Amino acid sequence: MSTDQNKFFINENSQISDKVSLDMSNLPEHIAIIMDGNGRWAQKRKLPRTAGHKAGIETIREIIRTCSDLKIKYLTLYAFSTENWQRPEGEISALMQLLVYYLRKEINELHKNNVRIHTIGDISKLPQAVIEEIQSALKLTQHNNGLFVNIALNYGGRDEIVRAVKILCEKVKEGELDVSQIDEKVFEQYLYTKGIPSPDLLIRPSGELRISNFLLWQMAYTEFWFSNIYWPDFTKEHLIQAICDYQKRERRFGGVK
Ligand code: FPP
């Protein structure tokens, strides 16, 4: 049993509680999360939606710590989609400020814990302060080899695929690549997620049962886990439950057992 109170409470038999036990040899390598329900969490408490996003940051902290403790390799968080620009200006700006606040406040602790920060999506369209904070986080943590935290920012799965097609078309036009050379492996090299394995497990809290333009290519064989809990109420116990349920799934990748 871990003696550090801040550490994840897992014992030698991988027993989390009376009810839940994890198979440490069958953990998902990559977990992706749609952090949904912040707005409804706030509305329920008669608070502004931004209060929900602020509370959502606390959950991020706990989930990153738990994933690190479990030695999960990749965690991808959907923080801002290409469609989120349609939200009211005040909410967009609050989200951008929260990102800066989060990175400034947490980056040293993340770095100390060997976390590597990475982003997917077109960050060039984000406010300058966010870009600078991200760049410094990427630089500071670039050599870390613990949990790889991949933040999806101004990210959309369709946009990512179209972008890859355009780059490939340019390559073909310039004669650098022949159409016959293009296959799935080559195509993947032009996605934002180049070099990152596909998610094994997608978690979406808040009761919505869709993937909302998240990692469309990469989730071809991802196991989905949904729950009605709003993201600010999501705890490490929910994460453990999701992993436990994942461990009961039979993954066949289109083959037979
Ligand atoms: C979805 O809830 C949540 C978002 C669009 C933003 C998530 C962002 C954060 C938690 C903060 C910043 C992120 C990082 C990585 C520091 P919603 O607003 O769609 O909720 P609703 O469906 O209840 O309206």
Descriptive labels:
257 residues; alpha/beta; Undecaprenyl pyrophosphate synthetase; six-stranded parallel sheet; 6 strands; 40% helix; binds farnesyl diphosphate
What would your notes on this structure say?
With 257 residues, the chain is of the alpha/beta class. It has a single domain (24-156, 198-247), classed as 3-Layer(aba) Sandwich (Undecaprenyl pyrophosphate synthetase). The chain is built from 7 helices and 6 strands. It has a 6-stranded parallel sheet, with helices on both faces. The chain starts with 29 loop residues before the first strand and ends in a 9-residue tail after the last helix. 33% of the residues are buried. Bound molecules: farnesyl diphosphate. Farnesyl diphosphate is lined by residues 35-40, 53, 56-57, 60, 77, 79, 84, 95, 98-99, 102, 151, 206.
What's this model, at a glance?
This protein is an alpha/beta fold and 257 residues long.
Note the topology.
Layout: E1 30-34, H1 38-44, H2 49-70, E2 74-81, H3 89-112, E3 116-120, H4 128-141, E4 148-155, H5 157-173, H6 184-188, E5 201-204, E6 223-226, H7 236-248
Helix pairs in contact: 1-2, 2-3, 3-4
Bound molecules: farnesyl diphosphate (FPP).
